[in-house]
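Technical annex B. To support the medicinal chemistry partners, we prepared a structural model of the target in complex with PRP, based solely on the information shown next.
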Amino acid sequence: MPLLVLAHPLGAHVLTHLRDQTTKPALFRTLSYQIGLLLALEATRDLTTVAKYIDTPLEPMAGRVLAQPLAIVPILRAGLGMVQPFLDIFPDVSVGYVGLERDHTTAIARSYYCKLPPLAGKRVLVVDPMLATGGSAAQAIDVVKAAGAKEIVFVCIVSSPEGVAKLQGAHPEITIHTGALDRELNAKKYILPGLGDFGDRLYGT
Ligand code: PRP
Ligand code: URA
């Protein structure tokens, strides 16, 4: 399935400020919200709708409303920075959590938490700002599939070619929405040019 790179000029503007090493956590959180909102709109562009008959103040009409329930599953901890925009535009969305942490030397993700709502029949948006080696995303998607999710989309802010290849290899049917596709990983498996450690910058740690 495709890799879709955000094309909105506001996305490029926000990402540049997110990447800037002088951006402090308070602004970093605002910018994360802003790009998360743009990505939330892109990742739900193809949701199905059904007719709903209503009366406007002037006459009856057939409107349309969303047909499919949604769930968002942030990968802790950095994924939390992308949740609020989804809550704001989809107030009925269910939220699940998958806690994964990369080992600093091996870059292999270790699972430490999982709490998921019922996922069958829902569009499930797995969100994590950084797709680096792809190990965390592939593991999180294994988990949501095992919990019954069938229709899954992965949403990230910055991705690497290595991470995209790994995720497409592990879960070829999944659409990936990314704010930017960067050049490569460095020896420590950080994305270049990237933005550094997203979780640390989001929470000032
Ligand atoms: C970061 C990021 C992803 C992961 C990406 O999380 O938020 O979850 O690394 O790397 P990968 O594609 O190589 O797996 P980290 O493990 O640093 O934990 P944190 O969110 O708690 O900071
Ligand atoms: N996690 C991050 O936060 N940044 C990277 O560049 C890679 C993994």
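Notes passed to the chemistry partners:
The pocket of uracil (ligand 2) is lined by residues 78, 130, 132, 190-191, 194, 197-199 (CB under 6 Å).
The radius of gyration is 17 Å.
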